[in-house]
Amino acid sequence: MTAEELYGIFGKYGAVYQIRLGEKSKDTRGTAFVIYEDIYDAKAAVDHLSGFNVGGRYLVVLYYQPAKFQRRAEKEEKQNELDELRRRVQRKKAQIAANGDK
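Given the sequence above, the corresponding structure tokens read:
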């Protein structure tokens, strides 16, 4: 699907500021990022286009929520810190046990 085709589909719900197609890598193949000039137009597109069939493929339309993604990133970071602390404690316990055996 081309950017022009996406403009035709998404433009029905408001002024589209930008469309970026995903790269050809495995992670982003088949994705596109549509940016509207008005938040209410974006909401209308999500409400009307999610599940819409285009060329035998169904659209999954999501509304980007930066705060939600930020919380998820912070949670993952805290989990990584906790995992690292657990590894340190385990190493320290192993050192103490090894020194106690001598």
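Residues 7 and 45 are 12 Å apart (CA to CA). Try to locate this feature in the token string yourself.
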